[in-house]
Give the backbone structure.
Amino acid sequence: MDAVSQSICIYRLILDDIDAKVTMRGGGGLTAITQTTDDIFEARIAQEGHEDIRTYQIELSESGAPKILSVKESTKSY
Amino acid sequence: MKQKIVFPRFDAELNTDVCDAYNNAELTLTVRMGFSQINPAAGADEGTYHDYGNAAKPARKIIKWTPATWKAWKDTFCSSVQAYWSDKFWLINDAGSFLYTAKDAQVYVPNVWCRLKVVGQEGTAANNHHSIDVVRLHPSVKWFGSHEHLYDSKDINSVEKNRDSHNKKVMQQAHVHEFGHILGLGHVDIGKAHCPASGDTNASACYGVSDVDMNSVMGSGMQLRLEHSAPWREAVRAFSVAEVFSGGASPTDLLMPFARLLVGSNTLFAVWPAKMKRHYPRTPAEAAAGTLITAPPKRGAK
Ligand SMILES: [Zn+2]
């Protein structure tokens, strides 16, 4: 799998997870998914007064497809 | 008598002049709201402003306020908040406080009607309880990231905040919810396992997970609940305790001691249960018996 294919695959995994798990559907929606380290990605969903942040740890292998290892939920208040 | 106690979040006034055989004491919380405009830069008609006022967040199209739209927005804010929160709760007087003798020569124990007054003034006024800056969104903009001191013009509209377990939209007017915070109320699920009070209580789970909690005004909906009477109960306790310390309900007061003793007169431990229906003033005997009067009672002359 080339690098672009692999990253598209990772973003798809994250998007599917958000669609399945996020219940608070109003607000500003998904505003960012950012890679913060090799295997950590952060998704931000805008709400009134705060962002819901989902931090994904991804298992990357040379050959196989990427997998979500863990998801951590946090909040950034404004 | 009208008495006032100043709290950090509001001024509270207890009015017992209105009490008679049918009418309770009125407890009015007054909140002075300061409003300031945010307009496009350099006097332009259109511009942008970032969610949460944070330059790293998406910029939304905004337009200039006009005197008429600004006045209309502030007026709607104040009147709709007042209409939502005022005149909804009655606190049952289980303290034996504020006794009065009506024109029928009968002593009554008044309950307390919970009222709210929202006063809109300039954001620069020194005595504002809470101040907000407000952007006017371009008609094409659906959503803007607000916070407690930064609102958008659409925050007074009803918008979808969530979906319940039947995929039914849960709608809310943001400013009515925010005003609950201004009065001192927290989110509906604070203290539950998924929203510990020690964590960030703005987490989405704190806005209610079950359908019932989600629909609370301190969740994602518009439903008022009895626990939302807390700001008035806090205030009435202060008046009730102050009455004892000021000698207004002293055991040496020859007019009232028997009536007050009959009710129980435990000012410090009184509960002041909240109701969402008018409950009429009671005689000390009725109060002592725990009778609640929700239909106009037969009384002597007013
Ligand atoms: Zn809130």
Remarks:
- The longest helix of chain B spans residues 67-85.
